[in-house]
């Protein structure tokens, strides 16, 4: 079993925010400006900033948070963390399972671990902590320095038009620059322009000079298996290595997976086609060599990693690890039966999705 090892226990984070700052946080929940706070973990204290994060999750009772560590200090080697509420996922393990799966098949993905969060002494609940995808993310993995762009909304669909079929106001629409200079947006502009304008006869060579095709196809295998509908046009970051000049894609926000949508409702196992969807995928799959590369990668993962016998032990280990903390959850403890039953649903989804994908491998011939 090569899937990511689990920690033996869940750390407790004590967050302290004074009354006025907490009122500001609540009253201006759409603000990206953090309020000052203190974070205490393992008897060590840090000055931090706290802001809400995400979109639809901000409207819910349990909200996701962004923690920024005041410089020059770092917290566990990072200056920023994201605490995901996982409120709409009955299992609370879909994101964690997704990132573990991505790493297991050879993709870049943020480190993720569960923490029990307390605010001013009261338990807020169990959260999934994600590391920020930034320069320190690259350094930890021994990767070359470069640019990082966040796909901030669904205009990041690799197309010249929006999902609403309107012409984009700029080629870089949908992206925000996390690491780099403003002029580095030229790399995104070049990428989007060439994806949409290079003739098919030249596309294989041109795109190979812009993206790491094998890594991109591995990401496609992952997202198609776990069926993240939104992840094709947002919920990802792009890392461009300054050394190679190639883009690589990094997944982000994967709670709407493994048979559930962004609202926590059932998403049938055959909702996302085997070829996925966005302009870049369509053009890659149209190249016979790349289509066969994708098919070969997918066949291998279906046989070795994306199957219930391989994933079920990890799913049950995750459930067992966090269950005692779910019982402390002010939001989920009263419906522990739904939590207990969700892993069975996820395993059935894996069986159904795997069968669907195996039956549709002929679509890649």
Automatic annotation (TrEMBL):
**Which domain of life does the UniProt lineage start with?**
Bacteria
Q: Write out the entry's keywords from A to Z.
A: Capsid protein, Virion
Checking InterPro entries in the record gives: Spore_coat_CotH_CotH2/3/7 (IPR014867)
Instruction: Write the protein's name.
Output: Spore coat protein
What's the source species for this entry? Paenibacillus foliorum
């Amino acid at each position: 079993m090569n899937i990511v090892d689990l920690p033996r226990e869940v750390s407790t984070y004590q967050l302290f925010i004074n009354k006025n700052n907490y009122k500001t946080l609540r009253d201006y929940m759409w603000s990206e400006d953090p309020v000052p706070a203190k974070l205490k973990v393992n008897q060590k204290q840090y000055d931090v900033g706290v802001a809400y994060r995400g979109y639809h999750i901000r409207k819910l009772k349990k909200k996701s948070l962004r923690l920024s560590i005041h410089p020059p200090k770092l917290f566990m080697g990072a200056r920023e963390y994201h605490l995901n509420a996982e409120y709409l996922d009955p299992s609370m393990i879909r994101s964690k399972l997704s990132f573990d799966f991505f790493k297991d098949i050879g993709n870049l993905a943020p480190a993720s671990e569960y923490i029990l969060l307390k605010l001013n002494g009261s338990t807020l609940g169990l959260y999934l902590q994600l590391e920020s995808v930034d320069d320190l993310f690259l350094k930890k993995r021994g990767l070359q320095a470069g640019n990082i762009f966040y796909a901030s909304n669904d205009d990041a669909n690799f197309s010249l038009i929006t999902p609403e079929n309107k012409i984009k106001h700029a080629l870089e629409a949908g992206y925000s620059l996390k690491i780099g200079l403003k002029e580095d947006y030229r790399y995104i502009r070049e990428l989007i322009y060439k994806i949409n304008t290079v003739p098919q006869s030249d596309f294989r060579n041109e795109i190979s000079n812009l993206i790491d095709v094998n890594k991109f196809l591995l990401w496609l295998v992952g997202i198609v298996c776990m069926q993240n509908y939104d992840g094709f046009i947002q919920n990802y970051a792009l890392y461009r290595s300054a050394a190679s000049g190639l883009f690589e894609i990094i997944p982000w926000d994967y709670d709407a997976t493994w048979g559930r949508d962004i609202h926590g409702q059932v998403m049938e196992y055959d909702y996302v086609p085997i070829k996925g969807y966005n302009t870049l995928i369509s053009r890659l799959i149209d190249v016979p060599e790349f289509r066969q590369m994708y098919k070969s990668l997918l066949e291998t993962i279906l046989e070795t990693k994306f199957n219930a016998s391989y994933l079920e032990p990890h799913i049950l280990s995750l459930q067992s690890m966090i269950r005692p903390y779910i019982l402390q959850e002010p939001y989920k403890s009263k419906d522990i039966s739904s939590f207990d039953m969700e892993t069975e649903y996820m395993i059935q989804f894996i069986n159904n999705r795997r069968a669907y994908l195996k039956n549709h491998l002929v679509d890649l011939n």
